[in-house]
Amino acid sequence: MKKVAFVCVHNSCRSQISEALGKYLASDVFESYSAGSETKPHINADAI
After folding, report:
1. According to the model, what pLDDT value does residue 43 have?
2. Partners of 3 in the beta sheet?
3. Which whole-number Å values give the CA distances from 41 to 3, 8, 11, in the listed order?
4. Taking the model in full, what pTM does it have?
5. Contacts of 47 (CB under 8 A, 6+ apart)
């Protein structure tokens, strides 16, 4: 199965949401992961 990484700068909101949507909507098509180029220690509250 293909693996897809959703990357944003801090890996604290957008990529987290994208990973969750990928898992929810397309888990039968690809594996979803999130990443960031400048990670933050906490997930943004907006992502939760």
Report:
1. 78
2. 31
3. 24, 14, 9
4. 0.79
5. 12, 13, 14, 16, 17
